[in-house]
Every structure is written in structure tokens, then in C-alpha cells.
Design goal:
Pfam family, one (chains A, B): HxlR
CATH architecture of chain A: Orthogonal Bundle
Oligomer: homodimer
CATH topology of chain A: Arc Repressor Mutant, subunit A
Largest interface: A-B, 34 and 34 residues
CATH superfamily of chain A: Winged helix-like DNA-binding domain superfamily/Winged helix DNA-binding domain
Strand content of chain A: 5-15%
Protein name (chains A, B): Transcriptional regulator, HxlR family
InterPro entries (chains A, B): HTH_HxlR, WH-like_DNA-bd_sf, WH_DNA-bd_sf
Domain HTH hxlR-type (chains A, B): 4-97
Keywords (chains A, B): DNA-binding, Transcription, Transcription regulation
CATH class of chain A: Mainly Alpha
Distance between the termini of chain A: 30 Å
Shape of chain A: globular
Order of helices and strands of chain A: HHEHHEEHH
Largest sheet of chain A: 3 strands, antiparallel
DNA sequence: CCGTATCCCACGAGATACTG
DNA sequence: CAGTATCTCGTGGGATACGG
């Protein structure tokens, strides 16, 4: 067995907030504060999750040289490709809640 | 937000061994020992996972009055309905490993 | 605004040993 | 055979406070 990449992906998907962040960013890039509001995650948790998703190649951090500072996060193509998977969970939950 | 059932399902899917157990049982019912062999999980971990999957309504434990004792685990229809989801992760991993 | 630093608690999971 | 009992360690995540 040892389907390593699959299990790594599932592990991250199962962590607190990953699903919410993905769902939010599928509608387009967002700033840290916006993500915080829509996902209702503590800054610490959101920060950790974004770092993990970055390390996973799911998210890209883009910093703008402005005042006040502005940072946006957007999904990589690999993360966008997770959408069918999200739809599958949602469809499942709809049926078997 | 608060898509509770979705996140609960994802959380369990992300735990150690859940994917392996699901994949194994999709081929038909199996005994504890067989599951242990094919998933290569410690008895403790496998036991915990099966209990959680049971509580989740994904798995049914069937005990036979035999000597030596025989116990089989099989998936519920709700768990079988997760297969498209598993295929989606596998397809994703295939593309974006 | 965008995070990081701490402190703390709970629990997930490995290893090993033991029982109905 | 099919698990449970312990012990231990590491980490996930909540709350609050602070820094660039």
C-alpha cells in the first residue's frame, strides 16, 4: 500500500481550517484578514495552515509594497484541481448527513 | 460557514489509517487480523480507527459465534458512497504528485 | 494590517505487554 | 484470534498578548 501522497493530502485536508480556506480562495485571492473573517480561525491557526498549504504547494503568498501592508493568498493550479474532490465531499455530505 | 458534517468527515478521512481501511473494505468484508496485515497499522490504532468509523456509521462490526472467534468488518452504504471521493483524491494525486 | 510569541491542555499515535 | 492496558512523546490547537 503506502499511497503516500494521497495520505499526505488527506491529512492536510483533515486539519482544522484547510477546507474553509480552500473554499474561500476558490472564489479568488484574499487577504489574511479577510480569510480570518470568513473562516473564523484564530490568527495563529490560520497562519499555520497557510504555511502548511504553502509547503504543500497549494497556496501562494503575494506581498505588496504598500502602506498599510497588503498580503494576498491565492491557490495554485494544483489546489484548484482539488475542487472536484471538494464537490465530492459536499455531495456525499448532502446525501449522508 | 460551519459546514460541520463535511469537516467531520474530512477530519476522520485525514486520520491515520482511515483511507487504508476504506480502500481495503471496498473489496469486501475483512477480519481484524487481515485488516491489520493489509493496512500495517498497530492493533491499537486499527482498533481506535474502526471504533471511530463505526461511530461515524461507516463500518459495521459482525461477530460470529465460532471457535476461534471470528469478527468481520464491512462498510455501510454511506461508506461505500465515499468511493467517488477516494477516486477523486487518487486522480488528483496521480496528476499532482 | 499581518502576523509571531507564549503558555497550556488535550489527544493522536508508536511500542510493548497482556487477556477473554 | 481480536483486541485492551499502559506509558510516553510529539504535536495540534485554543486564548491572550505583543511586534514590524
Amino acid at each position: 500500500m503506502t499511497s503516500e501522497p494521497i495520505e499526505t493530502a488527506l491529512a492536510l485536508l483533515g486539519r482544522q481550517g484547510t477546507y474553509r480556506v480552500l473554499r474561500a480562495l476558490l472564489d479568488g485571492p484574499m487577504r489574511f484578514g479577510e480569510l480570518q473573517g470568513v473562516t473564523r480561525l484564530l490568527p495563529r491557526t490560520l497562519s499555520l495552515r497557510l504555511k502548511e498549504m504553502d509547503a504543500m504547494g497549494w497556496v501562494v503568498r503575494e506581498q505588496f509594497a504598500e502602506v498599510p501592508p497588503r498580503v494576498e493568498y491565492r491557490l495554485t493550479p494544483a489546489a484548484v484541481a482539488l475542487e472536484p474532490l471538494l464537490r465530492a465531499v459536499e455531495a456525499w455530505a448532502e446525501e449522508h448527513a
